[in-house]
C-alpha cells in the first residue's frame, strides 16, 4: 500500500486517479507528496518520501538540491495549465490595446441622467488600437509561448518568437508564419507588445532590465505571465516613469507596482481555471503512480528522463552522483551476490544520474538485504527494489 499526502486544494479529478493500492492523507510519513503552491523550501522531509509531484509548471517551491541528495524524485506537470495562461495573456493583450480597465473604471464611477451624453463626449479618451497588424514578441515558445504565438497570429498580429532552447517538439507546435529571432534584442526591437514565457533560472532571472528595456519600442507594452523574478522591477518602473515603456501587465504582485495607472496586476491567476487544476492533478497523480510502481521517469525537474519496459520480476532503481565507475560499482556488487542482470539502463542530468536494473530472480535473503547493500556504495542517494 502506497501513502500519498496532499498539500493545497488538489482537484478531485486527480485524486480519483489513484487506485485501491493508494491511501490519501492517512499519514505524515508518506511515499509521495502531491502539491500545488505550498512552499517546501524549509520543510523537513520524512525518510520514506520518494517523490514530490507539483500540479503546475513551476517548481521554485521545491528545494531541488536537497531533495535530490535525499533520493527524492521531483516532478512538475508541464502543459497542464498552458491553455489557461494563453487565454489570460490574449485577454490582457486585448484589454491593453482597448483601454478596457480604464474605461470600466470610468463607467463605474460615473452615473446620472446625463451619462449617455457625457459618455459620448468623453469616451474618446479611451480610444484604443486594434491588434490587427501589430507586432508581438513572444520570449520563450514552449508549452505556453507557442500557444500564445499561434493565437496572436490567428488574430492577425505579426508574431516574432525568441527561444535559444527551442526543442524539436516545440518547433512543431509553432505556426510557420511565426518569425524566429536569433537574439532577444532582435525579437523586441520593433514589438508593440512583449510577452514573457521563460522559466526562472540563473540565466533568465532579471533578463528584462534597463539595457533590454531601452532597446524596446517607445510605449510598448510588457506582459509577464511567466515568473516575477524574470523582470527587474526597479528598471521597469524607471522605464515607465520616463514614458519609454507604455504599460506593464503582470501576474506577480509587488508593493512597488501599486497605485499606478500604467501597471495592471492580476493575483497570480494564470493557471487558475477548473480545467487547468484538474489537468495538473490528473497528470501529477499519474506521474506519482508511474514512478512508484515502475521507477520510470518523465518530466522530472531534478532527475534525467528514463523509461524502460518493466518486464522482469524485480527492478532496482538507483539515484546517485554522476561520477566515474558508479555503474561499475553497482554491477560488481550484484555480480558478487550472484545476481544476474537482465537489463541495465543509465541516464545523467548534470551532477546526478539514475540507473534502472532489471533482474529475473532474487533469493528471499537478497530481497531483504539488497537495498541496504547498494545504499552503502558512496555517492548512492537512494536505492529502491520494485517487484512486479
TrEMBL record:
<dbReference type="InterPro" id="IPR002912">
    <property type="entry name" value="ACT_dom"/>
</dbReference>
<keyword id="KW-0520">NAD</keyword>
<dbReference type="InterPro" id="IPR045865">
    <property type="entry name" value="ACT-like_dom_sf"/>
</dbReference>
<dbReference type="InterPro" id="IPR006139">
    <property type="entry name" value="D-isomer_2_OHA_DH_cat_dom"/>
</dbReference>
<protein>
    <recommendedName>
        <fullName>D-3-phosphoglycerate dehydrogenase</fullName>
        <ecNumber>1.1.1.399</ecNumber>
        <ecNumber>1.1.1.95</ecNumber>
    </recommendedName>
</protein>
<comment type="pathway">
    <text>Amino-acid biosynthesis; L-serine biosynthesis; L-serine from 3-phospho-D-glycerate: step 1/3.</text>
</comment>
<dbReference type="InterPro" id="IPR029753">
    <property type="entry name" value="D-isomer_DH_CS"/>
</dbReference>
<comment type="similarity">
    <text>Belongs to the D-isomer specific 2-hydroxyacid dehydrogenase family.</text>
</comment>
<feature type="domain" description="ACT">
    <location>
        <begin position="315"/>
        <end position="388"/>
    </location>
</feature>
<dbReference type="Pfam" id="PF00389">
    <property type="entry name" value="2-Hacid_dh"/>
</dbReference>
<dbReference type="GO" id="GO:0004617">
    <property type="term" value="F:phosphoglycerate dehydrogenase activity"/>
</dbReference>
<dbReference type="Pfam" id="PF02826">
    <property type="entry name" value="2-Hacid_dh_C"/>
</dbReference>
<dbReference type="InterPro" id="IPR029752">
    <property type="entry name" value="D-isomer_DH_CS1"/>
</dbReference>
<dbReference type="InterPro" id="IPR006140">
    <property type="entry name" value="D-isomer_DH_NAD-bd"/>
</dbReference>
<keyword id="KW-0560">Oxidoreductase</keyword>
<dbReference type="InterPro" id="IPR036291">
    <property type="entry name" value="NAD(P)-bd_dom_sf"/>
</dbReference>
<comment type="function">
    <text>Catalyzes the reversible oxidation of 3-phospho-D-glycerate to 3-phosphonooxypyruvate, the first step of the phosphorylated L-serine biosynthesis pathway. Also catalyzes the reversible oxidation of 2-hydroxyglutarate to 2-oxoglutarate.</text>
</comment>
<dbReference type="GO" id="GO:0051287">
    <property type="term" value="F:NAD binding"/>
</dbReference>
